[in-house]
Amino acid sequence: MVKRHHQIDFASGALVFPGGKVDEHDRDPALRAHADGGEALDDLRLSLAACAIREGFEESGILLARRAGSRDLISAEHASSLKDWRPKLNASEVGLVEFLTKENLRLACDALVPFAHWVTPTFMPKRFDTYFYVAATPVGQLGRHDGSESVDSVWLNPADAIGDKRWTIIFPTKMNLLKLAHAKTAEEALSIARTTPVVTVLPEVVKRAEGSFLTISEDAGYGKVEEAMPRRG
Predict the structure, then answer these.
(1) Given 3-state DSSP classes, what are the helix, strand and coil percentages for the chain, each rounded to the nearest 5?
(2) What is the distance between the alpha carbons of residues 121 and 127, in angstroms, rounded to a whole number?
(3) Which CATH number describes the domain made up of 2-195?
């Protein structure tokens, strides 16, 4: 997980999963020719997978990619040698197609497993439509924050991330950590994700005499959730 820079307008200073918004380059039709598993995805799903891999690389240095013609994900040494591309991709100075072409790489879209889909509640002034994926980190790729969007990085057990008071964790992140905690290993997490349908989560507010509570549908896989909202005034 990475800690967001305190000057970022959304979830500043919070501990989050690496990620970000879809870039126009992620929608390039030419990407389909550079994506393992891309034939199974429509245009939207391909752009989301491309974004997830790109943002993961930009923010953490972990790259889910293969050399063209290889079945193996690239080594830690190879991923590290590509570090100069991270700020260029982040600034949209180059797109994934150019990066993949020049480095003779293919996106490992088939390594991503859909995990969750969250939409920001309607009462929020700034809303997001967010897709979460799980993937096994390539052997040896340890990850490191970029120092701009993210200012710290750490590997954590999901339960430890929630229980450690040093970290600020927003509601969607907390809920997905709790969902991840159902698994004891990365392999188990991937297996559960492959066999569990993703149900879109749109949190709603329930008002009672004792206060307001943020709730999500039980069929989304998070159990019965009622998060007390801070009282105003």
Answers:
(1) 35, 20, 45
(2) 7
(3) 3.90.79.10
Q: Give the strand pairing for 211-216 and 204-208.
A: antiparallel
Give the Cα-Cα-Cα angle 169, 149, 176 (nearest 5 degrees).
30
Backbone dihedral angles phi then psi of residue 93, each to the nearest 5 degrees: -70, -30
Q: Tokens 């080594």 correspond to what residue?
A: 75
What are the boundaries of each domain within the chain?
2-195
Tell me whether strands 105-108 and 35-36 are parallel, antiparallel or unpaired: parallel
Nearest by Cα to 118 from 108, 110, 127: 127
216, β-bridge pairs = 225
Indicate the pairing of strand 211-216 with strand 15-16: unpaired
* Among 109, 137, 116, 136, residue whose Cα is nearest residue 45: 109
Question: Which tens digit of pLDDT belongs to each residue from 90-135?
Answer: 999 999 999 999 999 999 999 999 999 999 998 888 899 999 999 9
CB 108 within 8 A of CB 53: yes
Global pTM value: 0.90
Query: What is the per-residue pLDDT for 7?
Result: 46
Note whether 91 and 155 are within 8 A (CB). no
CA atoms within 13 A on the CB side of 172: 22
Which of 153, 192, 196, 160 lies closest to 178 in space, CA to CA? 160
